[in-house]
Amino acid sequence: MADEVKLHGLAGSPFVCRVKIALKVKDIKYDFVVEDLINKSADLVKYNPVYKKVPVLVHNGNPISESLVIVEYIDDVWKGVSILPHDAYEKARVRFWAKVVDDKCLPALFKAIGSHAQEQAVAEAHEQLQFLENELKVKGSKFFGGDSINLVDISATFIAYWVGAAEEALRITLVTKDKFPKLKEWSDNYINCQAVKDVLPPREVLVGFFKSRFGKA
Ligand SMILES: N[C@@H](CCC(=O)N[C@@H](CS)C(=O)NCC(=O)O)C(=O)O
User: Fold this and answer.
1) 155: CA distance to ligand 1 center in Å?
2) Which end of the chain is more exposed for a tag (fewer CB within 10 A), N or C?
3) What's the total number of domains in the chain?
4) An example Gene Ontology cellular component term from the record (predicted)?
5) Are residues 30 and 112 in the same domain?
6) Closest ligand 1 atom number to CA of residue 13
7) Angle ∠(139,136,154) on CA atoms, nearest 5
8) Does ligand 1 come within 6 angstroms of the Cβ of 13?
9) Do residues 117 and 107 lie in contact, with contact meaning Cβ atoms separated by under 8 Å?
10) Do residues 101 and 199 share a domain?
11) Ligand 1 neighbourhood includes 67 CB (under 6 angstroms)
12) Which atom of ligand 1 is nearest to the CA of 14?
């Protein structure tokens, strides 16, 4: 029997995009179920009662929530190109950095964007991004995953693509080539990676979102 795969999400979400990238990497066909976050569907609330957030992946009727958990699930279930390393220590390192992105980098960036790049908020975001910059420098590779993308790259999709749209929409500067040369180079490589390029939302949609959500009247 063929797998039934449904992804509940919405177009501009960086967390949903993580899952789309993983599905693309593995070449998995799926149905996309558009959710309205103002009027959450009964299915979304049933599938993700704790957080009530997208993405939710439903595989043969079984729901999985939280984007990083979903990406790991996809890697476990579908063989082919690996998204996490097999070595236990390397896998732990990858999970650690993906957690740093979620727990440290993204909240600091959200705050910096929401504050229109207020000095203190930008300094806090820079402090977190510096850890990623250093990690890339130490690795000396094209991606956090080496020659191909892994969970850390996928976790940082917002940094590679959404941040630039926010900078353009709000006429602010958060990540410069001077300060973060490795991260900038990585962003360019990452968004031009085929599996990523194929599923990123149009930049103008994100610019429009940031303008309407955070723009000054
Ligand atoms: N930690 C979650 C974050 C997901 C998330 O924040 N999703 C947003 C859309 S971008 C959402 O569903 N928000 C609805 C809400 O907060 O009620 C993940 O990685 O999946």
Assistant:
1) 14
2) C
3) 2
4) cytoplasm
5) no
6) 10
7) 105
8) yes
9) no
10) yes
11) yes
12) 10
